[in-house]
């Protein structure tokens, strides 16, 4: 079974792109080229990590998240925010105020995700108990890590721990109970994730482990921020009262989920390691592929620096956001809000599992024929030796090695390199 | 023509250079993937070349890793200048290790290096001279799978 053609959340706006090489050199999978003065993305290589979005100084890289207006299609609108949102509005604003501001912005109901995060941690531990091999398992929370593994580390697909991440579990629970409670057909209920991450949209539109996502869309925190800020300002008088009557009980272990290490903080009896940032994640996955880290039960990998709190679509600088969330984690302490017996019951019903395992993406060998692939690899070495190795990007490829690779794949010409041309004249 | 195509690449490994541990194995793995080889084959080659590279880093002064890929076969040879292995059969015993406590602290030296290489290879040959160095040669067939 092969992965079907997938949707991407990241696009380059041609009008704004001036054809500099910043996104191209920042791309960890070398998925960007600059041709005729404009950057473009090679679909098969892009993992939607959003590095290009961070590096573009011209605002030419856009993410396709759900627009606020698209919510009008639903009769009943539900928001499941990422806990990152609690770090966006300074230390005087309590999570309950943010949830209540979201209701005033236009959601009929808003659910705090921290309890479901706690549930996920407990389910993952139960899975590890029942499955002593292979090691290490890798968490599936970061959709970019899943895509990275499908493309670059296909052999590690069976090591992705097959429990859905909290956003999908929360949506699945709500899909189960809300239609009955509201007496509305499921399709009239819009369940929306609020996220700092462009890739969540990809996992919703082309899920890697579900037949269909339980979510209807993802609104970026960046897009919804002004509305929430406005609602918070208008609601200042009520805020005091809300402080005195907290409606939601936040989970201590769930609260820190958006920080690197948050997923494994509540672990009781397993050795888990957290890795964040795209290049560090790739380094560690390389080690796993070489047979290392087998004494580790679980690897929590998130490609954004410091975890989801470093997502490119948040507003607050990530250090302040992180510090605020850590305050909240401290305040919540070890408070558990989920009964482990409930988790166990859902787990054994397979309610929390993937619909199907992660499927490797099509490999991109130099050639389908082994002998010709070898010949191309030989030619690529020869071409590489002719190149100046300055990795300047003027040819439109991120570095000399990638240009040599593009040439043997028929996607570029040696003459694209301005230095090679000069030598020949 | 098709049978004669061989892709060769050579890598230098410096003894004691733990900072670059795994770099050669990683390059080899990347190349094999680009040559379109089966995931399981690549993984076996990655594990074997990682262990071989680490043996040079941990015990030898310097070494060269040579990769040769032809349709149907991967050959990896490692030649090092180093202390050599006095008793090769003993070194091939699972769990036997001469790693120092410092190496073990770093998570190396579990005595699975050579056994692991042999386990992942289809042919395995080792030749060691005490005081001179070690020659290791493995092949992995790329058409047939070894369980």
Q: How would you name the oligomeric state of the polypeptide chains in this document?
A: heterodimer
Report strand order across the widest sheet of chain A.
6-5-8-9
Low-confidence stretches of chain B: none
Question: From the helix content, strand content and strand pairing of chain B, which structural class follows?
Answer: alpha+beta
Please indicate the count of domains of chain B: 1
Radius of gyration over C-alpha positions of chain A, nearest whole angstrom: 23 Å
Radius of gyration of chain B: 15 Å
Beta-strand content estimate of chain B: 25-35%
Largest sheet of chain A: 4 strands, parallel
CATH fold annotation of chain B: Heat Shock Protein 90
Basic shape of chain B: globular
Plain-language structure description:
Chain A has helices spanning 22-26, 51-55, 95-105, 114-130, 143-152, 166-182, 199-205, 221-234, 236-244, 252-255, 278-289, 318-332, 340-348, 370-386, 400-408, 418-424, and strands at residues 10-12, 32-35, 38-41, 61-63, 76-81, 109-110, 137-138, 189-195, 217-220, 272-276, 298-302. Chain A is of the alpha/beta class. Chain A has 3 domains: 1-64, Alpha-Beta Plaits; 68-348, no CATH class; 368-425, Orthogonal Bundle (3-methyladenine DNA Glycosylase II, Chain A, domain 3). The longest helix of chain A has 17 residues, at 114-130. Chain A is 40% helix and 11% strand. In chain A, the strands form 4 sheets. A 4-stranded parallel sheet of chain A has the order 6-5-8-9, with helices on both faces. In chain A, strands 7-11-10 form a 3-stranded parallel sheet, covered by helices on one side. Chain B has 147 residues and is an alpha+beta fold. Chain B has one domain (2-141): Histidine kinase-like ATPase, C-terminal domain (Heat Shock Protein 90, 2-Layer Sandwich). In chain B, 34% of the residues lie in helices and 29% in strands. Chain B has 5 helices and 5 strands. A 5-stranded antiparallel sheet of chain B has the order 1-2-3-5-4, with helices on one face. In chain B, strand 4 and strand 5 (133-141) form a beta hairpin. In chain B, helix 1 runs antiparallel to helix 2 and helix 2 runs antiparallel to helix 5. Chain B is globular. The mean pLDDT of chain B is 89. Classes of the chains: A alpha/beta (425), B alpha+beta (147).
């Amino acid at each position: 079974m092969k992965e079907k053609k997938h949707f991407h959340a990241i696009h380059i706006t041609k009008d704004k792109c001036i054809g500099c090489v910043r996104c191209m050199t920042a791309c960890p999978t070398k998925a960007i080229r600059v041709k005729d003065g404009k950057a473009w993305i090679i679909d098969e290589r892009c993992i939607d990590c959003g590095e290009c979005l961070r590096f573009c100084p011209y605002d030419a890289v856009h993410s396709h998240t759900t627009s606020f207006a698209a919510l009008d299609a639903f009769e009943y609108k539900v928001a499941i925010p990422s806990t990152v949102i609690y770090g966006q509005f300074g230390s005087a604003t309590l999570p309950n105020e943010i949830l209540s501001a979201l209701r005033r912005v236009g959601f009929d109901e808003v659910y705090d995700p921290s309890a479901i995060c706690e549930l996920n941690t407990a389910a993952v531990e139960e899975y590890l108990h029942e499955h002593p091999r292979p090691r290490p398992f890798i968490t599936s929370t970061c959709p970019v890590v899943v895509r990275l593994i499908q493309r670059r580390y296909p052999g590690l697909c069976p090591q992705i721990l097959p429990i859905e991440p909290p956003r999908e579990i929360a949506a699945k629970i709500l899909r189960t109970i809300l239609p009955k409670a509201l007496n509305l057909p499921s399709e009239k209920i819009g369940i929306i994730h609020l996220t700092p991450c462009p890739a969540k949209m990809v996992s919703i539109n082309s899920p890697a482990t579900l037949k269909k996502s339980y979510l209807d869309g993802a609104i970026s925190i960046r897009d919804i921020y002004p509305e929430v800020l406005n609602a918070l300002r208008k609601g200042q008088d009520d805020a005091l009262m809300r402080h005195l009557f907290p409606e939601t009980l936040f989970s201590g272990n769930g609260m820190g989920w958006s920080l690197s290490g948050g997923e494994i903080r509540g672990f009781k009896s397993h050795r888990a390691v957290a890795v964040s940032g795209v290049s560090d994640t790739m380094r560690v996955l390389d080690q796993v592929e070489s047979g290392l880290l087998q004494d580790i039960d679980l690897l929590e990998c998130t490609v954004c620096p410091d975890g989801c709190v470093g997502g490119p679509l948040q507003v607050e600088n990530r250090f302040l956001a992180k510090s605020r969330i850590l305050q909240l984690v401290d305040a919540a302490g070890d408070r558990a809000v989920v009964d482990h017996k409930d988790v166990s019951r859902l787990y054994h019903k397979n309610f929390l599992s993937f619909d199907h395992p992660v499927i490797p993406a099509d490999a991109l060998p130099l050639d389908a024929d082994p002998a010709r692939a070898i010949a191309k690899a030989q030619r690529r070495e020869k071409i590489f030796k002719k190149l100046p190795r300055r990795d300047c990007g003027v040819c439109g490829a991120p570095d000399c090695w990638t240009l040599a690779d593009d040439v043997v794949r028929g996607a570029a010409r040696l003459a694209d390199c301005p230095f090679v041309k000069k030598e020949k004249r | 023509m098709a049978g004669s195509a061989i892709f060769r690449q050579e890598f230098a490994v410096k003894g004691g250079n733990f900072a670059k541990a795994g770099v050669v194995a990683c390059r080899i793995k990347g190349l094999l993937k680009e040559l379109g080889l089966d995931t399981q084959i690549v993984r076996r080659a990655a594990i074997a070349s990682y262990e071989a590279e680490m043996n040079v880093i941990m015990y030898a002064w310097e070494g060269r890793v040579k990769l040769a890929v032809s349709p149907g076969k991967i050959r990896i040879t490692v030649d090092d200048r180093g202390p050599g292995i006095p008793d090769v059969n003993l070194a091939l015993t699972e769990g036997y290790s001469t790693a120092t406590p410092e190496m073990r602290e770093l998570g190396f030296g579990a005595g699975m290096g050579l056994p692991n290489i042999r386990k992942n290879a289809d042919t395995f040959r080792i030749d060691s001279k005490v005081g001179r160095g070690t020659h290791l040669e493995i092949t992995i067939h790329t058409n047939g799978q070894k369980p």
